[in-house]
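During the no-cost extension, the postdoctoral fellow (Dr. R.K.) reprocessed legacy sequence entries with the updated structure-token encoder. One reprocessed record is reproduced below for audit purposes.
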Amino acid sequence: MRFLLDFISRSDVERLNTYENHRKALQQQLLALRHKDFTVMALSSEHKRGVEDILSRYICRTERSQISEAYEDVFESSTVDCIEHFSADDIHVFKALDQLGQALGEVSQGRSTSQVMDFYKAAPWPLSFLAGYQFRKQLEQHRSELKQAIRHSEPAWLSRDEIQHYRLKLADTPHAKTRALVAKLFETRSEELLWVPPSLPHYPLEGSFKGQENFTKTLLFSSWVMVACLERPDFLRSRTPCIAVTQGIEPISPRQERPAQSPHSL
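Re-encoded structure tokens follow.
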């Protein structure tokens, strides 16, 4: 323990000696409990607090933060402005999705076509992320009647060709939220980090870690459990190649149809 503290305290001799004095005194108090004439009430909290004060500088348990006052101070909230990332491609995607929804509404009795705006806001290429939703099921059920409309909905689908040839770029996603998120997350080349940089580095950071002293994790939550099928319904086969993409912790049952929520917490 002494060696570890020496390392993380950067050999702070004064702090280490103070810790050692409190630790030994606390140990002697605890050992004294073995004597019948020594009671717990005789213990002093001075040395216990001394050890805690020193160790708390270097040791933390974030999952226990809620037991303390003002625990929300450990979180940082920020708003990402998506307006500057909005483009004509976003409009083309919504137009393709909306026109397909209108065509589907004319041949089906379902009400899921009223949710196209929710689908559009929830994810890029929304038609590729609707497995398990009634909209997608009705689309496949009526695909023979919607061949023309499906062909015109190409902007709202993932490009199979771009994925197979590794040309898919998130920075060019026709979705303002995603582009804003990509710009925020990768502005400092954080994708090169194999792990979070140390908060108290013992050596100067080098390579991909250099300049990343203030890097922190970004967590994305979603109510979606999505499967992205890369072929349009009119070309579906029994062995359609799919990419499984699971996001969030709450699966959506087909019986619990509800508006899609955004997969990005901005």
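Residues 192 and 208 are 6 Å apart (CA to CA). The beta strands are 225-229, 242-246. The remaining legacy entries will be reprocessed before the final report is submitted.
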